[in-house]
């Protein structure tokens, strides 16, 4: 499967990647975000949502587990659900909140800490790994489906070195 790797020298680079990713989104995508606390999962999602036209705030859904957004994709309304499952205490919490219904063809689901809901989530179209070397961040994006490949093949990102 296709993959892409680069370095993000500072927060601005993370923002630029989020903005570039916003241009290759399509409804129905499931995107897992991996990386330690502070790796930049929320920062990347924030830039992606702003790049996709969301004008308000994007706060970390640490306590709510999920925040919904509305964007316009190809002239159509599209929902984006931003999950942070770090504090999810049990599978019931996920199921009772109705989160399983959010994984549908009209919604893009972006999930921080998917490891916390193993077995409850569908497979991702894209896995994004953020890591913290001595300076900046490293990122690797892996596509796992046709939709993920399509998204990745549309990605145009020129990192500053
Ligand atoms: N490329 C970068 N280089 C250096 N710092 C960065 C870079 N991108 C983001 N940051 C900084 O790293 C931090 C990322 O915080 P963020 O809340 O996005 O992490 P997170 O992965 O969502 O963590 P959590 O698991 O706690 O939700 C912010 O302080 C941001 O300014
Ligand atoms: Mg976060």
Can you give a write-up of this model?
The protein is α/β, with parallel strands linked by helices and 161 residues long. The protein is built from four helices and seven strands, in the order βαβαββαβββα. Strands 1-7-6-2-5-4-3 form a seven-stranded mixed sheet. It is globular and about 45 Å long. It has one domain (3-153): 3-Layer(aba) Sandwich (Rossmann fold). Bound molecules: adenosine-5'-triphosphate and magnesium ion.
**Strand portion:** 25-35%
Tell me the span between the first and last alpha carbons: 26 Å
CATH topology: Rossmann fold
Structural class assignment: alpha/beta
Q: How many beta strands in the DSSP annotation?
A: 7
Share of helix, binned = 10-25%
Q: What topology, given as strand order, has the largest sheet? A: 1-7-6-2-5-4-3
Mean pLDDT: 96
In quaternary terms, these chains amount to: single chain
What number of domains?
1
Biggest beta sheet summary: 7 strands, mixed
What is the C-alpha radius of gyration, as a whole number of Å? 15 Å
CATH class: Alpha Beta
Number of helices: 4
User: Which consecutive residue ranges, at least 5 long each, have pLDDT under 50?
Assistant: none
């Amino acid at each position: 499967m296709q993959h892409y790797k680069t370095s993000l020298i500072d927060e601005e680079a993370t923002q630029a990647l989020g903005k570039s990713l916003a241009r290759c989104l399509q409804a129905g995508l499931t995107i897992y975000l991996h990386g330690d606390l502070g790796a930049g999962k929320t920062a990347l999602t924030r830039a992606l949502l702003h790049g996709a036209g969301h004008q308000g705030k994007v706060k970390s859904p640490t306590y709510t587990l999920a925040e919904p957004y509305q964007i316009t994709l190809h002239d159509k309304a599209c929902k984006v659900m931003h999950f942070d499952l770090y504090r999810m205490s049990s599978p019931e919490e996920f199921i009772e909140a109705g989160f399983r219904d959010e994984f549908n063809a009209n919604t893009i689901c972006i999930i921080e800490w998917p490891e916390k809901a193993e077995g409850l989530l569908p497979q991702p179209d894209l896995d994004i790994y953020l890591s913290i070397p001595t300076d900046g961040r490293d990122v690797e994006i892996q596509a796992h489906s046709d939709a993920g490949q399509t998204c990745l093949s549309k990605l145009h990102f020129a990192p500053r070195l």
